């Protein structure tokens, strides 16, 4: 494993070298503890020296000190220390040799005038020198020499090039000019050395050698680190750590040095080539070592963050094991902070020294530590969702993963309890929202299971299932808290979740009233996508609820909008829509993917479609039958249904139904023909109903509706062929009680849908047929249109006047995107205040009132 | 029958003093044990300054016991306080009643204040004495006096808070003294005050409200509206034209919403009023002379009320709403008849507000039933219809004859005594008639639109209206042809 990491981390140029080192470390396997002690401080020095040259000497001293700190417990340290030095010295030599080799290649290049090669080699050389420089090693005289030589050759070459008749090829020429720039820059960087060299090359070289000899003792250690980048170093250490016994570890990471270690880890965090797994391991050790609460909190904070850092980009989600340990650590963190009120974790604190131990005593009361538990909880939850998004929902893995929701829910509850205790309203709101999101869409049994798990933990929030008695009460109390909190986004989401919950529990009226009173449909299009999705889900669930409760018209109207878009899956975030005309950019696709709901939260779209189409059928078929003329036929209630029906009509041959749609289409045709029994059987044989919670009652309800609508359709269709029709016959044919037949017929007569009257003594319906001529019919149409126009104008004025007072009708001109709300709105308004026709007159009345107000000189109250 | 009694739900929305008549009524109906009612009355009276009344109630409840001494103490206090307040108020009253002052007073309240201050040294505090005294008088039951003082206070004071309070006080006093005309006026101004005061607040917070926020001003407004709805029942069911006015008010969208959200039980009164005013609305009985033309809202009250009843069915149901529902939604005359019987005997007989209208209600309800029945049926058996109306056959016949005579049905309906049926021959409406019907109010509505637009000063829209106005008559012509 370590080998793999190393190779991955190293650059090509030094791969052979690191291989070497690997060998040597393996060679040294018999004395493992030693190099580790030496290596560790060296690393920290490496980090520090990287910062600036000036501090190098100081940091060296420091590292020496820590050397001693670390090594005191170990005997015979000094002779062990020699070994790596020897090895490392050779490494430095090798490095020099390598440089010289590049120099050779360059010289060769000069001879054949191959500037491309020279340029490449020079780059390599500069890189090596740069590394050397980082380690504050003296710059080899060789480099300066090469530089000076190069400069002269470049100038010469340029000169030649100018005079030459035959130009060199383009790439070569380019390389030459590039070289010129590079050399110029390099010389400028090392101006003083170059000058010194030019004055007296030999003296310079001597000086360098002297310097090298002098720097030898500290340099080699650094050198070894130079040779391999940080990642390699730490991995090497780890290999050795794991073999160390308990005692050795304790010496390595003690509670005294914990802050230093912590800082080292934190500084390495986010840097390239940092081995995250290694960091996590160090931190895990530190947690065990930590002695005081303060230390533990600090280390836990760092540990959890680095867990979340692990593989941020490589894979789609956090591995479950890692997630579970993060979850446990968050739990631990919460319980520490919850149990000791003297510590508090805050996002904004005053600056404090990271390296100093703090306690309530030193801080006069509460110790404030920078960090954020709520963001950990958020992240945990998000990662959980993400993993569910990416696991195949049909495998056992998904189910296993889903089981983790319980612990996550416990953590959330615990955090809620903590925030309740400390009275931090903002994070409390967020955490309650998280909790709500885990339970709002779940059936009672699941919520009970989750709550039972949360109940076991020692810290409990004030709102639990046992306290509240029922899930609805629990959801209610969670929502009420969020309504009262100031955050409007949370309020909106809580509202929607609450409505969803009501709808799930078949509480249609409450859900509907809440949705209408929230006026969410007016502002939802300006909300963020996640909230819009939640809104769509809520509306759809409301539609299903209406369907289950037998409110066919409501169900149809609610579901219509989302089905008209034909993008049901996309709007519910249950699948990515393939757009025909435009290609999504990868970013869009990614964003879209992230929005997808995990599978277990999906609303079954097939069931949804079945509910929608069946309710459309029940609304639309009688309507179709009542329409005689072609013009009126354009007045469609449910376009998707009508389209399907037309398509089914065009089929020459219809086989036995297979899909849900087939069933419904054939049922519709049967209903049109007055064969309600066939229709009922077809509808009831749809398999998807079994997914509904109360399948049998729903089926019964549907059968009854089919009987009623069948009767209506029959009357509409065949009325012209009868002059009288016996009520008892109708009641027999549709096996409805006589009373409901009478009721239905009366209703139709009253609403002027059927021009007929009842003859009570004979028990028959007497039909009156009116023939309408073409021009009469047209006149009627134009009258209707005019009325509609006046309505529209009044509506337009409503909007213009701001819709105050009685002008409550709202704008319908939203985009197609803004699905659900329109009909919902129209229907809801209509129901709550008045119907379409009543509405027209009602408005007229208000107008006349407005006039009346104006006459006696009142300024219209609502005009302005 | 106690299950249909609404007193318990209504009282929380009423003033202490307004509840007395309700309780007294309960005592009369005997729905509840008399002692319980008296105890309730006593508990109520204890909180007021009507000590004598409380004392007599106490004696009624506990005949043997001595009246608690605290009453006497309180009484003494009250009397002294009364004197003090009266003196304070009298000072102001003296000034105001001076004819010179009365003439000098203008519309502008600030100016008035300044005037009074400059010439007579009256300060705001002194004027507030009027309010205090008025309130005090109200608390011991001198409603006429209270109404007087509160009226004067309102004329002078600029304090919005106290003014509203004075408004409520005056309304209550007027209701309790039974001056319904004055009370009606008071009610209307109060309603305006509530509606306008919250309007700016509503506009400003519209967006936030849309996010589901329950904002305090909106909530307060809803609250005051709920109270207005309840208090106005007193006025509307006692004023001669109250029922139509009730429909006007309660069917306005804002109040309809108030009823739906906070007090669905008021639907009973709404439904009752709709039934009661049905005849007047249809223009069948010559209404009280000078009654204003009923608006479209009242004319279509039944339809609207039925709609509301349907939507609110899950929240509130009683025999009256049941009757309307069975009649107009289910068209089940048998059940409607049952519900009507129950409504009259169970609800109206015992209801404080509706009690007086029992017979009228029955009459109107019968009218509704027969109207619907006749409209649906082509041939009606008189016996059957009488049964539907809870009448004996003879009575039924008389009733039906009257009905035919009174209404326009006369043209189409004939009684065939031999077969004992009514033949209704309603020729289908000709198409052109429907077209005329449909386009009838379009011109008026458009004109109104035009006026409204002109007011808001939108020229572009006006043009549209003009086109509209031109189009409408043309359509009528087409229809006529």
From TrEMBL, chain A:
List the InterPro entries hit by this protein, alphabetically: EIF3C (IPR027516), EIF3C_N_dom (IPR008905), EIF3CL_C (IPR058999), PCI_dom (IPR000717), WH_DNA-bd_sf (IPR036390)
The residues that cross the membrane are none
The record's Gene Ontology biological-process terms are:
formation of cytoplasmic translation initiation complex
User: Which residue stretches belong to region Disordered?
Assistant: 1-86, 799-864
Listed Acidic residues bias regions:
11-29, 58-82
Q: Could you tell me where the Basic and acidic residues compositional bias lies?
A: 809-834
One Pfam assignment: PCI
User: Can you quote a single GO CC term?
Assistant: eukaryotic 43S preinitiation complex
Keywords (A to Z) from UniProt: Coiled coil, Cytoplasm, Initiation factor, Protein biosynthesis
Coiled coil ranges: 147-200
A single Gene Ontology MF term assigned here is: translation initiation factor binding
Its localization reads: Cytoplasm
The family this protein is said to belong to: Belongs to the eIF-3 subunit C family.
**Binding partners and assembly:** Component of the eukaryotic translation initiation factor 3 (eIF-3) complex.
UniProt protein name: Eukaryotic translation initiation factor 3 subunit C
Q: Which organism is it from?
A: Pholiota conissans
Lineage of the source organism?
A: Eukaryota, Fungi, Dikarya, Basidiomycota, Agaricomycotina
The gene designation is NIP1
Automatic annotation (TrEMBL), chain B:
* GO terms for MF: translation initiation factor activity
Q: Which UniProt keywords apply?
A: Cytoplasm, Initiation factor, Protein biosynthesis
**Biological process GO annotation list?**
formation of cytoplasmic translation initiation complex
UniProt cross-references to Pfam families, sorted A to Z: eIF3_N, EIF3E_C, PCI
Subunit field text: Component of the eukaryotic translation initiation factor 3 (eIF-3) complex.
**The UniProt record lists the keyword Cytoplasm:** yes
- The answer to keyword Protein biosynthesis applying to this record is yes
Where does the protein end up?
A: Cytoplasm
Assigned protein family: Belongs to the eIF-3 subunit E family.
| PANTHER family hit by this protein | EUKARYOTIC TRANSLATION INITIATION FACTOR 3 SUBUNIT E
GO CC annotation terms, alphabetical: eukaryotic 43S preinitiation complex; eukaryotic 48S preinitiation complex; eukaryotic translation initiation factor 3 complex, eIF3e
Biological role: Component of the eukaryotic translation initiation factor 3 (eIF-3) complex, which is involved in protein synthesis of a specialized repertoire of mRNAs and, together with other initiation factors, stimulates binding of mRNA and methionyl-tRNAi to the 40S ribosome. The eIF-3 complex specifically targets and initiates translation of a subset of mRNAs involved in cell proliferation.
UniProt-listed CDD domains: eIF3E (cd21378)
Residue span, PCI domain: 235-429
This protein's name: Eukaryotic translation initiation factor 3 subunit E
Q: Which domain of life is it from?
A: Eukaryota
